[in-house]
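Consider the following input, taken from an annotated entry for FAD-binding FR-type domain-containing protein (Lepraria neglecta).
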Amino acid sequence: MIHTRPISFHEGERKIQRLLHVPSQDNPTSPGLTLDATRLLHLSSLIAIGTIDSEGRPWTTLLGGEPGFARSLGQSIIGIKTLVDRKHDPVIDVLVGGQQDGEVQEVGNGGRIVSALVIHLATRDRIKLWGKMVAGALGHHGPEAEEEEDGAAEVQLVFAIQQSLRNCPKYLNKKNIIPARPEPVLLSDSPILCDRALELLAKADMFFISSHHELNMGTNHRGGPPGFVRVEKNDRSGTVLVYPELSGNRLYQTLGNLYTNPRAGMIFPDFDTGDALYVTGTTEIAIGKDAAAVLPRSNVVVKIHVVAARFVQRSLAFHGELGERSPYNPPVRFLPTERAQALPDVQAKNSKVAYANLLARDLLTPTIARFKFGVTDPEAAGRWKPGQYVALAFEDELSLGYSHMRDDDPKSLNDDYVRTFTVSSSPGGPRGSPSPCGKLPDDEFEVTIRNVGAVTDFMFRQNIRAGLEVPLKGFGGTFTIEQGPMEIVPFVAGGIGITPLLAHLPLLDLNRIRLFWTVNVRDIGLVLDVFSRCPSLAPSTRVFVSRLDELSPAESQETIEKLERSGAHVNTRRMLASDVEGHQELSSTWYLCAGAPLRKSLLMWLSGRKVLYEDFNY
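Applying the prediction step yields:
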């Protein structure tokens, strides 16, 4: 019998909602199988299923087939019929394991609790289901000897659905599902993940997770960019996976379950190969600063301490062709141990708050400008070193607050509006007129940036006279240029990648700098500005100018003449391997700041040399 009274949130869901300051709301979960869920069942070619084993551990699987392999049988009963991995799928083992072929296991309405997620990746539709298993059977699908050898079987499952809930399409990466026959091979059943499992995690852009609270269970999807699940630890002391909880519908059903019962079962499907990583473990939830300490720039983080795992080759009954990735996916958030640029936070160290006031802006090109800021409390902000970045918070200026969906600006939903900019000035300068090469007083700094997104666009549009004051989170980074006595320092810069060097210029003997600077013709204004502020750098610089064909012949000639008058060595082409390979003897250590494609090439060209580089992809 289906109860039609409103469904309330349980204690765990209410607790998480309070911790995250969610206004009071009704639970939109519907009793029974809705018409919407019935429709999606007939269209979908994937359904994730969760259940609990005899040890109380949740597991999750992902079944696939032709559209309609799962369908409504009426009266909130659904039937599923498809090929499965009969040998190593933990959910199939729990539901119908140990049965003879063709034997029907009838458990009635009081049977084992199950949860499911009906999902149609081609249209980004998904609906959560919860209920109980009524019956199940394994049977042959093809020659019996072949099935015994390859481990595939046909499963039939019947569930009585007690609750259903439509979920939003955010973070669903589109896939075209193609049915395939499972040919399962167990490669590892160790909780210490094997190399193949780690490779899968590195490219996985979604997983499915099951959790439960008392007799209520849920299965849901988590998606993001490839590699959004990070491996914090994977050794004899244990395996820990970490993922960020992104902005969603704020029901927090999965987190609520994990709050009262910190156990989860997950499947990471490989849509290319049909491989699967099955994981069950205990969980921790981190919120606010605790979350950011685990995974910088995250407000909510879940850790999974792996208790048991199986990596099964070709376990799944489908492959998937990648379509469009979700426009809501934020960038991958890395662990502090993976990247050194975990954001500083002045307030985490003391109760003082430092602010940066915008003092001046100089437009160097249509897309590059230099911004000067004053620091309200230098003691609270801390002293910075050349080569470091500053972290500024623009949330108060740009955030529109919570929205469930925002199709006009999807990435803004998970944007904390904290940005890091390499400081392009050096501290310790005199107050008043600027010293050569950009040395400023200790309570001022400059950043030289390109207009590439929402925050930089906001900065470029600011009226300086109106005043702008933003929280200064702190300074960080470890990129340092060291120049020993009589030592040559070679530095390769790609466009705006000159900024770390600019902050070091007052500390270096520029006669012993060898700068290789490749720029687009549109960025010539930046080059000329640097040489005008620090003329002694130009003779030590080789400038490579590309895209000169975008100018008229007269404009092109004028541009080259301006650069040559500065004293720089000018090449009217892109940088080539021979440009640096022929100068490797300059030093055993080279410095580099460039975008990923150029950096990759330079690391090959400078093979055999120590290359220290600043990564401005963060």
